Predict the 3D structure of the following.
Amino acid sequence: MTQKAKSIYKDPQNKRKIKKEAQAMGPWKIAWERFKKNRIAIIGTTIFIVIVLLVIIVPILSPYELSEFELENKNQPPSRDNWLGTDEQGRDVFLRLFLGGRISILIGLMTSIVTVIIGASIGAIAGFYGGKVDNILMRFAETIYSLPFLPILITLSFALMWRVSSEQKMYAVMFILAIISWPGLARLVRGQILSLREQDFMVATKALGLSTRSKIFKHLLPNTLSYIIVNGMLRMARAILTEAGLSFLGLGVIPPTPTWGNMIERARDSYVFNNISWLWIPPGIMIVLTVVSINLLGEGLRDAFDPKEIR
Amino acid sequence: MLKFVIKRVLSLIPVLLIITLILFVLLQLMPGDPVNAYLGQGSKTTPEQQERIRAQLGLDKSPVVQYFNWIGRTLKGDFGSSIQYRKPVKEIIGTYIWNSFLLNIVSLVLAFAIAIPVGIKSAVNKYGKFDNFWTVFSLIGMGMPSFFFALLLIFFIAVPIDFFPLNLMQDPLKAALGYENFFAEILDILRHMILPVVVLTIISLASLIRYVRNSVIDVINQDYIRTARSKGLSEKVVIYRHAFRNALIPVVTLIGLYIPTLFGGSILLETVFIWPGIGKMLYSGVMNRDIWLVMSSNTFYALLTVLGNFVSDVSYAAVDPRVKLE
């Protein structure tokens, strides 16, 4: 949070006002009000929205096509026609950059969603049932958690990728990333559910005779939603980085489907690295911008949801 | 305490067994036949010869038998033989592992040595210029893919400045001809280490500084610090005598968790810098279907991860008297 935002809370008059408002507003409204006042988080959110919009719009407006080869026009440096130059097959790098962004961001988003679904369900079930179920599920989670992340990812990708056609590689990457990254979230949700389970409103659900499914998915999980959203955002940033690393090693999504990771991979060719730097520097910068903006957004959300922030 | 440690060590064994089992299943799913990889393409061998090689590599039995054989052999210290190098895996790992340790341990020490004072100073002057600078540094560091950062450093520093080598661990010419003396060899390795160490250190610094800073802020807000201040102690004593110790509790436990993360993350860097470490070896092993090499190096990483978690748990219990041992 910025100095300014902090000082708003410190001012006793404002503090009283905020507290009064807080009584009248629901938790989501309070979080939104606080989020709006966090200037850095708003900057991050704006950058992220701009990137998402560009990634959607640029390929639509671009005069070029992904499969458009112009071999006589290859390896051109940035110019007025090709803002980021062309690659060794004469394709427009500016277009590929944003098409690649589509795939990279989509992989990040989907990985995060799948991870959240698996992690939250397993965590909720373990926390709700407790006892043996909890023990088995958490042991399982602990084992997956102890897997060395990148080495296993490399081995797993190599073992599975050759069975998958190149168009489906994108989904395979999401799947692989999700199945090894859910345990962290499962632990978090389980801890939350364990404490929520003992609260009065759960006695009420029992008195009402609600089904187990409704208890877990309608009453317990929504209470952990703020944690899940924040965790999901930060996971999305991580997944974008991991996918880039995997594609850089040639084990993720492979050309002709562009992603930021496999665009940087071109730099492993020493001629491209030294002479055609517009092929690999822009996707790297886009990754940094995207991941930083998502992290800012996620941290802003965490501060906004955190009840400790108003005291 | 001893009982706790023994109990934790015993609980590691099933976890390790399951991890190696998962690894083994993964290796069975790998494409291609290791025997063909061993022979190379277009080799003229009779099926009998191929079967002999298969038996030599220990691949002629059923996967279940292979797995138990592997465990038995590994416990005896025999890691099988490498397909691409045609040498015992133990020998290869033995040389490469130290190169990785060199890179990672130096970076780890540097990262902690920088992060602790910087984190404390940032926390003390929260939202000051110093804090803001390092916050921006951390944010960018956390968003930067390590391999991209490495490429940028090579492009903008190593290519224009002759002093910095582009990659490798030693000058190939000098290494082949032999160094004038031992000292020259050390200097050469150090020169090659600078860029990879800078990348690894900065990448781990980014999250570490945030962690130390937040941990110190948490402690500074506690009542006993207010008591210390109201007693009239100088700010220095309050921070470095009273706050410092408690703030470091969570940081100490991080060391255990950082080692496996660092080693895993350096796979990408070792590939970019062609650093002859275990990560580069794992990558080329995977690409060349070098089954026992991949199995052993992955087991090494698994061991490192499991031990890291263990060290983190035990150090937490050792440093923080409030932690109750079951």
